[in-house]
Design a protein that fits this description.
There is one protein chain. The chain is an alpha+beta fold. It has 15 helices and 15 strands. Strands 1-2-3-9-4-8-7 form a seven-stranded mixed sheet, with helices on both faces. A five-stranded mixed sheet has the order 11-15-12-14-13, sandwiched between helices. The protein is globular and about 60 Å long.
Length: about 425
């Protein structure tokens, strides 16, 4: 086992990074002044991972869309009790989520941390599937899929992704479709589990009123040593063109919702810390909460407080997105495009850059006060190939010229789409 402490001198804070003998990467951020703790046990496996092959295999295995999410549901069940019943006895609040490129199991607690962590590590590493339980789950997840089909915010996002991407599985709902989950069986679930739930493909992050030694002791007790499983995944190549520049759907909403995004080229699967900072700063300069354009559109009634921005990224996909509510979404799009064009031609003012930079840096620092955010950031940064403090450090060093170059490379008017739910 290798244990090292990584400290940020400016924050006077740090965390432990442990290469555990089992093959698992463990992160612990001790916060003795806090009353509770938050733990996240995640695997680098999400909804886009539908085609893979183990090292030495000739052919790729392609599995039904939605199987990663299906597997997340099934892992909570065992032959005797489900994990939620066990967590209820310790008083911990447990949950899980599947995203496009990861699946994570979480709990928060103010007492009985050791027992809760044992439960978390134990149930995730003990799969139990039968054809009968799989068939039962198909009905449950089918209802969940239908529910999300009626969710306007969810559909606004996925209509945008379907407008931007022609091949990447990110365009498919995380839960899959009614048709795709009907193809899932116990054998396929075990195949995916053996490939992606190997400890070398996973990470455990804990933040709060805990000690690194107790976390290691529990891992020593529960986790067996595993041989690393090596595999390849297919990430479909996408060119810069979009499927459509505009998509519209009608649902039961009080006000029209929209998402407007730009398809970015992904020459490598993951974004660097500098790229993440530069794009987020560009979004802030264009129409962030403290930008002139945001204030203008708000005063004119073009947008409301729901308006926001996000750099939507994952393994093999990236898109800067503006989203919110407006009865004139096309006008909002045009104002944003005009602002981008002006900034490209005239450059960013020193004042606007400093305001956006200080706001971004301040929000980054605030995130270090929340145990849930810390655990999530530790897993997220590790899966993306960098350290917890790297984006914070990049946000201090980034220049106005860096962000102006990002405007030219990441906000191409010919590679954008507007998704509208009326």
């Amino acid at each position: 086992m290798i244990k090292k402490y990584i400290k940020n001198e400016l924050l006077a804070d740090g965390y432990y990074e442990i290469d555990h003998d089992s093959g698992l990467k463990i992160f612990v951020m001790e916060k003795p002044e806090y009353t509770g703790a938050f733990a996240m046990f995640g695997t680098k496996y999400g909804s886009v991972d539908t085609c893979f092959r183990l090292k030495g295999e000739k052919d790729y295995t392609c599995v039904p869309e939605g199987i990663a999410h299906f597997l997340e549901h099934k892992l909570f069940e065992s032959e005797e009790l489900d994990a939620f019943e066990l967590f209820a006895k310790t008083g911990a609040n447990a949950n899980a989520f599947t995203s496009f490129d990861r699946t994570c199991y979480i709990f928060s607690c103010s007492k009985n941390f050791e027992k809760s962590l044992e439960i978390l590590l134990d149930f995730v590493k003990k799969p139990y599937f039968t054809e009968q339980t799989v068939q039962k789950e198909q009905g449950i997840i089918g209802q969940e899929i239908r529910m999300y089909q009626d969710d306007p915010d969810w559909q606004t996002l996925f209509n945008l992704l379907r407008g931007l991407y022609s091949k990447n599985p990110v365009r498919i709902d995380i839960a899959g479709t009614i048709e795709s989950i009907a193809e899932i069986n116990a054998e396929l679930l075990y195949s995916c589990y053996r490939t992606f739930y190997n400890l070398s493909n996973m990470a455990l992050a804990v933040a709060g009123n805990v000690s690194v030694d107790e976390v290691i002791a529990i891992a020593d007790k529960v986790l067996p040593k595993e041989e690393k499983v090596e595999f390849e995944q297919i990430i479909p190549e996408e060119d810069s063109s979009v499927v459509t520049a505009y998509t519209e759907e009608e649902l039961g909403v009080d006000m029209t919702k929209f998402a407007f995004g730009f398809k970015n080229s992904c020459f490598s699967p993951l974004r660097t810390p500098k790229e993440l900072v530069c794009v987020n700063l560009a979004l802030g300069v264009i129409a962030g909460k403290v930008s002139p354009l945001y204030c203008e559109m708000l005063e004119e009634g073009l947008i409301n407080q729901s308006f926001g921005t996000e750099y939507f990224t994952g393994r093999g996909f990236a898109a800067p997105i503006f989203m919110g509510e407006s009865n004139k979404p096309e006008k909002v799009r045009d104002r944003i495009l005009a602002q981008i064009s002006r900034l490209k031609n005239e450059g960013i003012s020193d004042e606007d850059f400093e305001i956006a930079k200080k706001r971004y840096y301040g929000l980054e620092v605030l995130g270090f006060n929340e145990t849930e955010n810390l655990a999530n950031a530790l897993v997220d940064s590790y899966f993306n190939g960098f350290g917890l403090f790297d984006t914070l450090e990049e946000s201090r060093k980034v220049s106005k010229e860096d962000v102006e170059e990002t405007l030219r490379t990441h906000f191409d008017e010919s590679s954008c789409c507007l998704s509208v739910i009326r």
